[in-house]
Amino acid sequence: MVDKTPRGAQHEGGVNTLLALMVVLPAFSSSKDPFLRGGDVSEIPQIEDAGKAFSYGGKAMDPFQIMKKAGWNFVRFRVWNAPKDGYCDKAHTLAMAKRAKDAGLRISIDFHYSDSWADPGKQPKPAAWRNLPVDKLADAVHDFTADVVSALIAQGTPPIMVQVGNEITAGMLWPEGKLKEGSEGWDTLALLVKAGLKGVHDAAGKSKILTMIHLDRGGDKAGAIWWFDEAKKRGIEFDTIGLSYYPWWHGHLDALVDTLKVVSERYRKDVYVVETAYPWTEKAVGSFGILESKLEPGYAPNPDGQAKFLAKVTEIVKGVPKGRGKGILYWAPMSIPTNGRLGGWSVFATFDDKGSGLPAIDVLGGKL
Fold first, then answer.
1. At 51, which helix (H) or strand (E)?
2. How far apart are CA 209 and CA 161, in angstroms?
3. Catalytic residue from among 43, 167, 176, 296
4. What does the angle CA 236 – CA 115 – CA 198 come to, to the nearest 5 degrees?
5. What is the DSSP string of 100-132?
6. Do the beta carbons of residue 308 and residue 287 sit within 8 Å?
7. Residue 146: helix, strand or coil by DSSP?
8. Which of 244, 149, 161, 216 is nearest to 2 (CA)?
9. Do residues 364 and 350 make contact, with C-beta atoms less than 8 angstroms apart?
10. Nearest by Cα to 362 from 102, 69, 73
11. Could you tell me the pLDDT band of residue 285, with boundaries at 50, 70 and 90?
């Protein structure tokens, strides 16, 4: 059964190709490559266009250089179809991928298949696909996926990993791809997901790009098992599992430990926490439905508590049995406030309101 609790508000306020060198790259081997550390930094162009800047160690720096200096090796970009404000479209994604490559960071792509936010509470179709029948909708998913991935490869910034859908616990491209009670909606969702996966493979050719399915079930073992069992029945073949984990929505850290262990073992796949965050300020209490009791005990909503929490989550992912915990991505770490206001997700950023780096940046990079 799908948890239909709306979570769109979390994203309303709320990574990167294996370094594209000028040589033929070997296939990505998750068993040999380093633990991936970074964040979904899609907000950077919008923050910069608002005139905001970032600093690290007291020095103003390009945000991608801050990431690299702090030890990050991985970033993710979300891709929307035709966003009204222009951000997170194909053009911005290509430009960001170049900056990431220049900084020595690997890239992952997260297709939302929408013109704006898609998450468990909403999975809207892009306007251009609104009236397409299911078979043509699947074609659109394939073609859009292949087009963006091909463009990234062509400019020398191929992604090492691609998510077909964002937090698709309740399906995607509603209403056609929405999951309902029992198994209703699954056959259509499988058709759409397979189309996206094929788009990745067709664009990649003989190159190896990992595919990921991303759910918001970081603390819900039963929910994750239900979803992946149903997917397996329908022959949905993918490489890795990505889970979101926010303690105020998904339970305490022990639930994360249990979920990662069981899911990795049951499906024999590498797992990533591809979204997590924690407040650096008490101003977060009351935001996004967060109560003090929903925060993790022993982790205060301040810079030190944020850093401590992130260190613990990293430890948990790295401790997944058989080395199957492969990486962690922080959600919107660069979301500092603009226009003189404390903006939504900025209470969870890895920078303070003035754009100065917090300890969490170094913890994420493995330096603290």
1. none
2. 5
3. 167
4. 25
5. HHHTT-EEEEEE--SSS--BTTB-BPPGGGTT-
6. no
7. helix
8. 216
9. yes
10. 69
11. confident
Among 43, 176, 275, 296, the one annotated catalytic? 275
Alpha-carbon span 95 to 111, nearest angstrom: 16
CA distance 197 to 142: 8
341, two tokens: 């206001």
At 286-323, the pLDDT tens digits run: 888 788 888 999 999 999 999 999 999 999 999 999 99
Alpha-carbon torsion angle 157, 161, 165, 169, nearest 10 = -160
Residues 87-136 have pLDDT tens digits of 999 999 999 999 999 999 999 999 999 999 999 999 999 999 999 999 99
DSSP category for residue 361: H
**Secondary structure of residue 208 in the 3-state scheme:** coil
**d(C-alpha 233, C-alpha 46), whole Å:** 41
User: Is 10 within 8 Å of 335 (Cβ atoms)?
Assistant: no
275 is catalytic: yes
Q: How far is CA 13 from CA 133, 149, 249, 348, 362, in A?
A: 33, 27, 16, 10, 24
208, 153 contact by CB (below 8 A): no
Q: Is 43 a catalytic residue?
A: no
Number of CB atoms found within 10 A of residue 83's CB = 18
Rounded to whole angstroms, the Cα distance separating 159 from 151 reads 11
pTM for the predicted model, two decimal places:
0.90
